[in-house]
Amino acid sequence: MASDMGSRSGVSRRDKVILGAILVVAVLLRVGVALYLGDVVDAPPLLTDQRSYHALGARLLEGHGFSFAKAWYPFTPADTPTAHWSFLYSLIVAGVYGVFGIHPLAMRLVQAVVGGVLLPLVVYRLGRRIFEPVTREAQGDRKRDGSASTVAPLAAAAPPAAAISLAAAAPLAAAAVTAVYGYFVLYAATLMTETLFITVLVWSLEVSLGVARALGKGQRVQRSQTLQLGLSLSLGTLLRQSLLPWVPVLFLYLAWVAWRQRVLGAAVRVAAVVGVMLAAAILPWTYRNTRAYGQFLLLNSNTGYAMYSGQHPMHGTRFREFDAAPLPEDLAWGNEAAMDGQLMALGVEFVLDDPGRYLLLSLSRVRAFFEFWPTPDTTLIHNLGRVGSFGLFLPFMLYGLTLGGRERALVRTNGLLFLFAAFYTVLHVMTWAMVRYRLPVDAAMIPWAGWALADLGNRVLVRLRRGSP
Could you tell me the pTM of the whole model? Predict the structure, then answer.
């Protein structure tokens, strides 16, 4: 998943040791939670999607394909092909069960190790990509003034030996935050798509920033970057198709950057290759759906239900994220493709019938999306995860973003990251919002928490070496 940045800017042996220690801590925490949850499907409570992936993994091994042995939420009859759940993740669960037996704990442990290594690592890579302009700018200043060290502006008043480079320390701090981030630890030990989806999404953002910067300089985009972008977006889409609306926004942003530098053709070539790779990943499942349902269904049959249930009048003007709307009696049972289209039409109808209520309902979803405080209607482990992630590190994210706003190089080169955070937030606020749907945005913003922690550590270090109280 590493991009070409690693070849241009090496990682010191000290940083490798620190990063290795962070990854060990991340794995141990996640394995500990996996062992605590044990070989039980419904652990922890409230994460009921685990039942579906466990059942699909077992059914695939038994040769029944993507189906359930009994009628299943939200609308799948027994022994009927389903497309509601991620095909890729179901296959991953089946693969783990095929090796270790049908034991949820096996999947928990495998994902705990994989997530404990890969997610902090890709956030570290994203941090390096984000703060790369500051590093280069500081290196340029060093060459011009002949100074012996590279320090961030806030540390410039200190003697060079007393300061650390924020641009170098921030990615490590971001990886450390990711290692202990409460909800990342919890979801890595569950039979759900969160950990793998967030990992490949962060990978795609890191590569996207590299592509955008190359285009912004009028440079040729390397083939490896284009292929990585296509692969990461393809895997992300197969894990959760809610990534698809972001893809055209990303292409438009890259085209705008390229157009300003008069290299629009380079952006078009990137989009064409990535588009072909996405099509190659999705179309086999489109063909499968066409064979199963006799009509077109691009990938999964959950978009219509999310729109229908999320806008249903039962919510009034206050969104109830854990309540499923009752299905209409005249739904075309047995054909998920038809049901998906019907439910989507009904969801849009709910919006058009009462746009004022829809606006208030969407505003209420802001709370559901950003909730970080403990609530009495959830379990202790969820409350700990919620407070021990966004609740604990939100102040550092805001502080880091404030510091970053003072760095022209950071503001100028990371617009794509902020665009993603805004788009992904609005997408869910306007449709269906839950705290776990916010986690990809958390991962994208964690490098700024790393920047804040590096700055605070730098201030403490400078004061200590100056002998200040």
Answer: 0.91
